[in-house]
Specification:
With about 375 residues, the chain is an alpha/beta fold. It has two domains: about 130 residues, 3-Layer(aba) Sandwich (Rossmann fold), CATH 3.40.50.1100; about 200 residues, Rossmann fold (3-Layer(aba) Sandwich). Helix content is about 40%, strand content about 15%. The chain has 14 helices and ten strands. A six-stranded mixed β-sheet has the order 1-2-10-7-8-9, with helices on both faces. It has a four-stranded parallel β-sheet with strand order 5-4-3-6, sandwiched between helices. Helix 9 links the parallel strand 7 and strand 8.
Length: about 375
């Protein structure tokens, strides 16, 4: 059961919280020794003067591996390995969203589904920066990630406020922010998936990493990169990054949630917001939305609902040692497998966005 703001569970398990604090201290040391360069700062070195930036990932750039599935060869960008604390695609975005001076009274307010990786990452990395978090969670279908998120919220002492529908989520988010303000604290709202103009910069950086690997001759230039299309920041950032790099690579964004969340108006708005920040930093780039194909047919009954194709892809990913689940990565991988080798000429890349690092491993071992 997810902890709520009115239950004693908010205090968290003292043992789990103590272990997590130990892990966070260790991760701070790992960050101090990790490479500090970012591909995006090589093309826009003044960007941190425009948008506050804080290094949170300790394992960038992430590697690219190649897997064979039947007659198909697929390149896999291993963004499951962005961080040894908790990887996946949210860390890149949070580097541009959790930076800047934080007042002692500030509270991060964010949300997502009851198995949300964005909420999990925000709670963890917020705690790393000594920032409190409050979360709004809407109900999603049964998923192993629900229990994982509940335990992380407990360990990080993060209250969660529940709502029954993702369509009620925005109003609930503002309600919680208003409550925080009424208590004399200052809410910092992080929107769904970290997909804002600033958060999207994290995936501009990812695309530039891929371009640099192509330039070094380490990989072939991908014809298409498949990724899950949820809040859309990942797809838009990749498109802008490839536009900057001058690659011909296109993006196949596999829709995993309702079209109102990631339709063309959303893509264009996010593209404009991100490019505006880059332009202020002296990096002018034309709109890159043309690179994004929205791939339908894999959503099934809705956000978080399993599909036969997605479940089969999750099983295949497991045999290959890749993390996958039914909400995002399974559906995106299913689309990549269906189209690689016959519908697409040239190399196909799959962006692996689910964390390989389980922040609860140490908690389980010590509990």
């Amino acid at each position: 059961m997810v902890a709520t703001a009115t239950t004693a569970a908010v205090a968290g398990s003292d043992g789990a919280t103590e272990v997590l604090q130990t892990n966070l201290r260790s991760y701070r040391r790992a960050l101090a020794d990790a490479p500090s360069d970012r591909a995006i700062l090589r093309v826009a070195p003044t960007l941190p003067d425009i948008v506050d930036y804080r290094r949170l990932a300790d394992s960038l750039p992430t590697p690219v591996s190649e897997v064979e599935i039947g007659d198909s060869r697929i390149l896999v960008k291993r963004d499951d390995l962005t961080s040894s604390l908790y990887g996946g695609n949210k860390v890149r975005k949070l580097e541009w969203l959790l930076a800047g001076p934080a007042a002692a009274s500030e509270i991060l307010v964010t949300g997502g589904g009851t198995a949300s990786h964005h909420v999990l990452a925000t709670a963890l990395f917020g705690r790393l920066l000594d920032l409190d978090t409050e979360a709004v969670l809407f109900t999603q279908p049964p998923n192993p990630g629900i229990e994982v998120l509940a335990r992380v919220l407990d360990a990080t002492r993060t209250p969660a406020h529940e709502t029954s529908s993702m369509f009620l989520y925005p109003a609930k988010l503002l309600e919680v922010a208003a409550r925080v303000l009424a208590r004399g604290r200052r809410p910092r709202i992080l929107y769904p998936g970290g997909s804002t103009g600033a958060g999207t910069l994290g995936y501009v950086d990812c695309a530039l990493e891929i371009a640099e690997a192509v330039d070094r001759g380490e990989i072939e230039e991908p014809a298409v990169v498949f990724c899950a299309l949820g809040s859309a920041g990942t797809a838009v950032g990749l498109a802008i990054g490839f536009e900057i790099a001058g690659l011909s690579t296109r993006i196949a964004g596999v829709r995993v949630t309702d079209a109102i969340v990631n339709g063309p108006p959303v893509l264009h708005a996010m593209d404009g917001a991100c490019r505006g920040l880059l332009r202020i930093a002296g990096c002018r780039v034309p709109s890159a939305v043309w690179r994004i194909e929205i791939v339908d047919g894999y959503l099934g009954d809705g956000y978080g609902h399993p599909t036969l194709e997605g479940s089969a892809a999750v099983e295949i990913a497991g045999r290959l040692g890749l993390p996958a689940e039914q909400t995002y990565t399974g559906k995106a991988l299913a689309a990549a497998l269906d189209r690689a080798g016959h519908e697409i000429e040239g190399p196909v890349m799959f962006l692996e966005t689910l964390s390989k690092a389980d922040p609860l491993d140490a908690l389980t071992a010590r509990s």
